[in-house]
Design goal:
Blueprint lengths: L12 E6 L5 H19 L3 E5 L3 H8 L5 H9 L2 E4 L17 H8 L4 E7 L13 E7 L16 E5 L2 E4 L5 H16 L4 E6 L7 H14 L5 E6 H11 L5 E4 L1 H15 L8 E3 L4 E4 L17 H18 L2 H19 L14 H17 L1
Parallel strand pairs: 1-2, 1-3, 3-12, 5-10, 8-9, 8-10
Antiparallel strand pairs: 4-5, 4-11, 6-7, 11-12
């Protein structure tokens, strides 16, 4: 995957690739092409392995997320996860596990980091250029597969009543707040907590109590609070007013899609699921089965997510070269997307998945020698 480095060899990096469903195989292949260019340019020692998940795994082993795939993920330094069509899977009892949710739970990937940034030459959909990060709690909240120890968090006591359980914990709220404030210190030193405490007084009350306690430990970081409905409107009005946004699972899921589309396109939005010991790079968008196999998918989101994974590994290992490689991938994306002729069809350009990946890969190597 990479040439032998000159001088002291870099520590090997074991990455697991899970292609997923729909456009997953195409955009993971594109991402690997860009990572290969980064490996050549920065003398990275990347060791890539693959594990089947989704429908491919269901056909082969009767489950969309085999135990062997999880064990490979647990042992890897990082995971690159393609999109999955989990809404189309059979029930859990028949093997239809959501690989994304299972990885988040089993690896305790409590922080979903979702940047929304406008790129030069590709203006935001509305308002001024955007540069914010949503720090979303990832392991609890209203998500039915993450709120109960046994059984789902949604149930029907009668045929005419459906109930959902929302789980908010002090530990979960505190650690996501700490992650947000630490990130803000690396950026513009402002955190906005988003909630619905005027209605969800107990659960969001606990969330806010924890965030406020953490805010007192970071006096150098400005802190404010916004209601979720007001925040959705404020992003449309002027998303440039925000830096780091911390919120609970469902609110973060919704706001990050909105912010990314305002910034330019959901197809450009990277995402990293991170915990204390593991991280998974994952595109924000879905599996788009309607264009699967047509060389029409935009791989930017997963490529950017892989760059985030390299930066996360660089921080953990104290490796400046990994940070440089991550920055080079981001710069390469900027350069290619800035030119109309370098864009994929969803952005109004002429390129397919493979041609776009080739351009970004070439740009990474050009950035490295600049």
């Amino acid at each position: 995957m990479s040439k032998p480095p000159s001088g002291a060899p870099s520590a090997p990096i074991d990455l697991l690739v899970m292609e997923g469903d729909g456009i997953g195989p195409e955009i993971t292949a594109a991402t690997l092409q860009v990572l290969e260019a980064a490996a050549r340019a920065f003398d990275l020692s990347l060791r890539i392995t693959h594990a089947d998940i989704g429908f491919a795994a269901l056909r082969a082993s009767g489950t969309t997320f085999p135990d062997t795939a999880f064990e490979q993920a647990r042992r890897a330094a990082g995971v690159i996860l393609g999109p999955v069509s989990h809404n189309e899977y059979p029930p859990v009892a028949k093997g239809g596990l959501n690989p994304s949710g299972e990885l988040r739970k089993r690896l305790d990937l409590f922080a979903n980091i979702r940047p929304a940034r406008s790129r030069d030459g590709f203006p935001p959909r509305c308002g001024r250029p955007v540069d914010l990060v949503i720090v979303r709690e990832n392991t609890e909240g209203f998500y039915a597969d993450r709120s109960m120890f046994v059984g789902p968090g949604e149930f029907m006591p009668t045929p005419d009543i459906a109930l959902a359980v929302r789980k908010i914990t002090r530990a979960g709220s505190t650690r996501i707040a700490e992650a947000a404030f630490r990130l803000a210190r690396q950026r513009r030193r402002k955190v906005t907590a988003v909630h619905k405490g005027n209605v969800l007084r107990v659960s969001d009350g606990l969330f806010l109590e924890c965030v406020r306690a953490v805010a007192r430990e970071f006096p150098d970081v400005a802190y404010e609070e916004r209601l979720i409905d007001a925040m959705a409107a404020l992003l449309v009005r002027d998303a440039s007013a925000f830096d780091v946004i911390v919120t609970t699972n469902m609110f973060g899921d919704i706001l990050s899609d909105e912010a990314s589309e305002i910034a330019g396109s959901l197809g450009l939005a990277p995402s990293l699921n991170a915990g204390s010991d593991h991280a998974v790079a994952q595109a924000q968008h879905g599996s788009a089965p309607d264009i699967a196999g047509l060389d029409r998918a935009n791989p930017s989101s997963l490529i950017g997510s892989a760059a985030m994974l390299l930066a996360w590994l660089g921080e953990r290992r104290g490796d400046a070269v990994l940070h440089k490689a991550a920055a080079a991938i981001e710069t390469a994306l900027d350069r290619v997307i800035a030119m109309p002729e370098g864009r994929t069809a969803d952005l109004g350009g002429p390129l397919g998945t493979k041609a776009f990946a080739a351009r970004v890969a070439a740009a990474v190597e050009a950035v490295a020698v600049a």
